[in-house]
Design brief:
It comes from Micromonospora costi. GO terms for molecular function: isomerase activity; metal ion binding. The protein has 263 residues and is α+β, with helices and mostly antiparallel strands. The protein has eleven helices and seven strands. It folds into two domains: 161 residues, Up-down Bundle (Four Helix Bundle (Hemerythrin (Met), subunit A)); 88 residues, SCP2 sterol-binding domain (Nonspecific Lipid-transfer Protein, Chain A, 2-Layer Sandwich), CATH 3.30.1050.10. The strands form two sheets. A five-stranded mixed beta sheet has the order 5-4-3-6-7. Helix 1 packs antiparallel against helix 5, helix 3 packs antiparallel against helix 4 and helix 3 runs antiparallel to helix 7. The longest helix is centred in the first third of the chain and has 24 residues.
Length: 263
């Protein structure tokens, strides 16, 4: 039976191959189209993914060598170099950098996938391969959507990424949620997802948090699981919302879009 690390690395590979094939067909004008990420064109999303791949690979290599992660000016220097590239280099550089990262994850044997700990530089302690890879998958899958939705407003988050990312949502809400937009209103929603099926409670009040499914909710949100993922990171605008997303009760879908403005 494959581990979470195995499944996540496989999703990183399938996602890379699919996005690489997509990017390989883009022309110069395509790279400067608006993306699904606010204020970024397609090439800038690829730049972000490419620089992120380079930074993630450096952390992985340091962990394998038993060294601390690169510090000081390393990340800013990577970002500055990528920011200075023209759009065509954003695309080609992404293809190369992300391939190297995925290959490095794939090369990890079963022991390393279970026991290696990676210091990502911004968490309280090093994390296992499954956690590091899922954090990268979250970034990759949502930014892949940013690229593809620039050409197809019906684009969705990749099917194999969705179940791997659902369990991470709760940990993010404390810093992605903006309950102040509700102006003091409180609500407890039942969140009912499909593809795959999940049921949660969504507590809206002084803070935003996931809970166990409530017995007596104030309202209900029903949605495809991938749409829920996009909602929590500010990527469920009206033009990108599937018809089967429904919200009942004291808050509206527009209220929820305000609670989750994205980043």
């Amino acid at each position: 039976m494959s581990s979470i690390a195995d499944q996540t690395i496989a999703a990183l590979r399938s996602g890379h191959d699919a996005l690489a094939a997509f990017v390989g067909k883009l022309g110069p004008d395509d790279l400067t189209r608006p993306s699904g990420a606010s204020d970024w064109q397609v090439s800038q999303v690829l730049s972000h993914l490419g620089s992120g791949a380079e930074i993630n690979l450096a952390a992985l290599r340091a962990a394998q060598a038993g060294d601390p992660p690169p510090g000081g000016d390393f990340n800013p220097s990577v970002w500055a170099r990528w920011d200075a590239m023209p759009p065509a280099e954003h695309a080609s550089g992404f293809l190369e950098a992300n391939e190297r990262l995925v290959e490095a994850y794939e090369a990890l044997d079963a022991s390393a996938r279970a026991d290696l700990r990676i210091d990502l530089g911004f968490l309280p302690e090093p994390v296992d391969v499954a956690t590091a890879a899922r954090m990268r998958l979250s970034e990759f899958a949502l930014h892949r959507w940013d690229v593809e939705v620039g050409f197809d407003p019906a684009a969705t988050v990749a099917d194999d990424a969705v179940p791997l990312l659902l369990d991470q949502v709760g940990a993010m809400l404390a810093w992605t949620g903006r309950p102040d937009v509700l102006a003091g209103r409180h609500a407890l929603l039942a969140v009912r997802l499909h593809d795959p099926d999940r049921t949660y409670g969504l507590q809206l009040g002084d803070r935003v948090e996931l809970t166990d499914a409530p017995e007596r909710p104030d309202g209900e949100l029903t949605a495809p699981a991938e749409a829920w993922l996009r909602l929590t990171v500010g990527r469920l605008g009206p033009q990108y919302t599937p018809e089967d997303v429904r919200v009942t009760g004291p808050v509206s879908l527009d209220d929820l879009r305000g609670v989750f403005p994205g980043f």
